[in-house]
Design brief:
- This protein is α/β, with parallel strands linked by helices and about 290 residues long.
- The protein folds into two domains: about 100 residues, Alpha-Beta Plaits; about 190 residues, Vaccinia Virus protein VP39 (Rossmann fold, 3-Layer(aba) Sandwich).
- It has nine helices and 15 strands.
- The strands form three sheets. Strands 11-10-9-12-13-15-14 form a seven-stranded mixed sheet, sandwiched between helices. The chain has a five-stranded mixed sheet with strand order 1-5-2-4-3.
Length: about 290
C-alpha cells in the first residue's frame, strides 16, 4: 500500500477535509462502501478518467486524521493495482473550486439535463435541474442515478405521490416535481444531505412541494404511488419489507444502486414480498429494477 499526502494549503487557509482517492475492484464495491461509512466518510464521488475505471474520492472530516492510516490498510485488499490510496488535505474553498472546474452539465435522461447554478443557460433554457454540489451527495453523474431517473421518467403519471428514499441531493425528487408529481416525500438520515437537498429544492422552485425529512423509513406512515430508492444493494435488501410496504397496491417501486452480480438476490427478495420485477435496465456494471406491487 502507498499513501501519499499533499498539503493542499493555500494562502494560509487551514484544510478542513481529507480526500482519499483510489480505484476499487468492482467485485468489492459493497465492502469498500461499508468500510468507508463505518469510518465516518462524509460522502463519495467518482472522477472519470480516460482508459480505465473511474477514481473514487471519499471525503472525511479533518479531525478523523488518526483513523485514516488504519482505514487505508483495510481498504487495500479491495482495490485495483497495488492497493494505493492517495490522501490529500483540502480546504473548503479549494474543494468548491474543484467542483466548479469538474461539474459541468450532464444528461440525466434523454429529456433532462443536470447543471450547476453557475453554468450559463442558453435561451430558451433546456429542460434542466439545477444542482449545487454538496459533499458528494449525488449530482446525477453516476450510472445508478441516471438509471433511476430514466425509470422514474417512464413510470411517473401526473399527480402521482412519490417517495424518494435516501434522497441525497434530491435530484430524483426534483425530477419527480418537474414531471408533474403530486405529493413528494424525500427522506435521508444524513442532516448534511438534507441541507444540500433543501438548497437544491430552492434553486428549482420546489421547496414547498418536496417534503424533506430525516424520518426513518420505519416511522414513515404514508403509502405512495411510486417509491424510488437509489442506495446500494445491501441496504435495499435490509429495507426490503419496509420499502415494499410503502408502495400502494398496483404501484411502482424503482430500485437502483445494484451491481449486476447482486441483481438476482435483490430480485428474489422483492419477489418474495409480492413485487413483480417488470424490467431491469443496465448501465455498465449497474442495474436498476422496475417493480410492480
Amino acid at each position: 500500500m502507498v499513501v501519499s499526502q499533499n498539503s493542499g494549503e493555500k494562502d494560509g487557509v487551514p484544510p478542513s477535509w481529507w480526500a482519499l482517492s483510489f480505484i476499487p475492484d468492482s467485485e468489492y464495491v459493497e465492502q469498500v462502501t461499508r468500510l468507508l461509512f463505518a469510518a465516518g466518510c462524509s460522502g463519495l464521488w467518482e472522477k472519470e478518467r480516460s482508459g480505465g475505471r473511474p477514481v473514487t474520492v471519499a471525503y472525511f472530516p479533518f479531525d478523523r486524521r488518526d483513523e485514516l492510516t488504519a482505514l487505508c490498510r483495510r481498504l487495500s485488499p479491495f482495490l485495483l493495482g497495488s492497493g494505493a490510496v492517495e490522501v490529500e488535505k483540502i480546504d473548503q474553498q479549494n474543494w468548491m473550486e474543484g467542483w466548479k472546474e469538474h461539474f459541468k452539465p450532464v444528461r440525466l435522461t434523454p429529456s433532462w439535463l443536470v447543471m450547476p447554478p453557475w453554468w450559463p443557460v442558453a435561451k430558451p433554457p433546456p429542460p434542466r435541474i439545477i444542482i449545487h454540489p454538496g459533499m458528494a451527495f449525488g449530482t446525477g453523474t453516476h450510472e445508478t442515478t441516471r438509471l433511476a431517473a430514466g425509470l422514474l421518467e417512464k413510470n411517473l403519471r401526473p399527480g402521482d405521490s412519490v417517495l424518494d428514499v435516501g434522497t441525497g441531493s434530491a435530484v430524483l425528487a426534483i425530477l419527480a416535481h418537474k414531471l408533474g408529481a403530486g405529493h413528494i416525500f424525500a427522506l435521508d438520515i444524513d442532516e448534511d444531505a438534507l441541507e444540500n437537498a433543501a438548497e437544491n429544492c430552492r434553486l428549482n422552485g420546489c421547496e414547498q412541494e418536496v417534503r424533506l425529512s430525516s424520518t426513518p423509513l420505519d416511522a414513515f406512515g404514508e403509502t405512495c404511488d411510486l417509491v424510488i430508492a437509489n442506495i446500494i444493494a445491501p441496504v435495499l435488501v435490509e429495507l426490503a419489507p419496509r420499502l415494499a410496504a410503502r408502495v400502494v397496491t398496483g404501484g411502482c417501486l424503482i430500485l437502483s444502486g445494484i451491481l449486476v452480480e447482486q441483481s438476482s438476490q435483490v430480485e428474489k427478495i422483492y419477489t418474495a414480498l409480492g413485487c413483480t420485477v417488470e424490467q431491469m435496465q443496465t448501465d455498465g456494471e449497474w442495474v436498476a429494477m422496475q417493480c410492480r406491487r
